[in-house]
Specification:
single chain, 472 residues, two-stranded antiparallel sheet
């Protein structure tokens, strides 16, 4: 079964999805005039928006909502981005695809951040009111923007399976592997503890998830970032050589291994997408929950999340691994390679530190992943028993499965789900991208007119005004 899934993945990624992802990223970059580069300053400014800033354009019906701030929505999305993909995923990409995979991770992040802007802006535009917060995502903009019920239901099913189930097994597998490597702890014991803790949190809903993520994400990201930067600075004289190795490998210029460039690109793009999620359709689910005065605001913030994830955290992991030289050891892969690389730089504390870091990174991803599934379960049905069953599977059953399954099977299943999910979302955002372009032009024009906090009203898009119930 594992071999069959691997063959299907190779066909999907090698011949279809990579080219489509790059083409869409370049298209969105051109149409937005490089929004991911030109508006970086605005992205950082928007992170300080309070939960109630600019809400005067919302109706009185929203006054009772428990508003999710821009930063909280950003933190939840980064919680799913900054995790296993940064520590284990980068290591897997380098072990299989060589150092050049890092280059292609950078490429997909630079152009994919424009895709992230489009999908999250659309998530905000087509969001809907829920009991005590907003809710939205690709399933909603497919249904209300494309008016395709079957495609919206397909996406809802795919993202629930991908994030709430498949990806959570990857996170659990990585945590258990790290704990076993560092402390010799049994995966069964660690998996049981993870499952019980995850279930306790996911039954609390999005507000508890937002609060936990807002606390954990800055701590774990800053701590790991500081440590890896210190290692890089300590070995600064070797960085030019590392960069040279990355570029040569990325372009297939090494003597005798030029034919491996396909594997290098494929692994770089796959692991880059798993980590930053640009175009996958996940971040818009959380972007839609934020209370902002203009949809573009959350689009910009989510684009920043792609940079934070890949260009900073993933790059730090990659440099530590390449500096160690251990990436060519056949026995090392995944989180074990990252632990060994860090151990070679800081001694026996390395595996322990990574075990603790991956616990924080991956556990926050488990609860963030769960929310993506919950948002889409609610889209498909209002049945509380169905939601309860999903919570049990997402927080409990698949966490235990991941703890006990092999590294190869959980990653292969994840890659297959990711391919199908991304293809579905790309169809939607290419079709609806014109609305994000119009919103960006409006936002820029208001800024040029001296308006510090641009606002949006649904009457500005009369052709779809009836579908934008939250912007009245």
């Amino acid at each position: 079964m594992n071999d069959l899934i691997s063959t299907i993945n190779e066909a999907l990624w090698g011949y279809v999805l990579i080219g489509t992802l790059v083409a869409c990223g370049l298209w969105f970059t051109w149409k937005t005039k490089g929004v991911q580069f030109r508006m970086v300053g605005e992205m950082f400014r928007l992170l300080t928006d309070s939960a109630t800033s600019g809400t005067k354009n919302l109706s009185d019906a929203d006054e009772g909502h428990k508003h999710i701030s821009s930063f909280q929505a950003f933190a939840v999305s980064v919680a799913t981005r900054v995790g296993t993909g940064n520590l284990a995923g980068v290591a897997t990409a380098i072990a299989i695809g060589g150092p050049g995979a890092v280059f292609w991770m950078w490429v997909i992040a630079l152009i994919g951040s424009a895709t992230a802007f489009i999908e999250s802006t659309l998530g905000q535009l087509f969001k809907q009111r829920h009991k005590d917060s907003f809710i939205g995502g690709p399933a909603y903009y497919i249904k209300n923007g494309l008016h395709s019920k079957w495609l919206s239901m397909l996406f809802a099913v795919l993202i629930t399976i991908t994030f709430g189930l498949s990806y959570n097994s990857i996170q659990s597998n990585t945590i258990c592997g790290a704990m076993h490597e560092a402390f010799g702890w049994s995966p069964l014991v660690v998996g049981t503890i993870l499952a019980v803790t995850a279930l306790a949190i996911v039954f609390g809903g999005i507000h508890r998830i937002a609060n936990v993520s807002a606390l954990l994400v800055p701590v774990m990201a800053i701590g790991y970032f500081i440590l890896t930067v210190v290692i890089i600075i300590t070995n600064i004289e070797l960085i030019p050589h590392v960069l040279k190795v990355i570029v040569i490998s990325a372009l297939g210029l090494e003597q005798g291994v030029g034919g491996a460039i396909g594997a290098t690109i494929m692994n770089g793009v796959k692991r880059g997408l798993f980590s930053n999620e640009a175009g996958e359709g996940s971040a818009p689910n959380v972007a839609a929950t934020a209370t902002v005065s203009h949809p573009v605001k959350q689009g910009l913030i989510q684009a920043l999340g792609v940079f934070t994830d890949t260009l900073l955290v993933c790059s730090c992991t990659a440099f530590v691994i390449l500096l160690s030289g251990l990436y060519s050891v056949p026995e090392l892969n995944g989180i074990a390679l990252t632990q060994a690389a860090l151990s070679s730089e800081i001694g026996s504390f390395g595996p322990t530190f990574i075990a603790i870091a991956i616990l924080l990174f991956a556990f926050s991803s488990i609860i963030g992943n769960y929310y993506y599934g919950e948002a889409n379960i609610r889209f498909m049905t209002s049945s509380q028993p169905v939601l309860t069953i999903y919570r049990i599977f997402s927080g409990g059953v698949v966490v235990m499965f991941g703890a006990l399954a092999s590294l190869e099977i959980v990653w292969n299943i994840g890659d297959l789900c990711m391919a199908l999910l991304t293809a579905c979302n790309l169809v939607a955002i290419v079709s609806l991208g014109k609305y994000a372009f119009l919103l960006l032009d409006d936002y820029r024009q208001q800024k040029r007119n001296g308006i510090k906090e641009p606002t949006f009203h649904r009457s500005q898009l009369p052709e779809i005004e009836k579908d934008l119930s939250c912007w009245d």
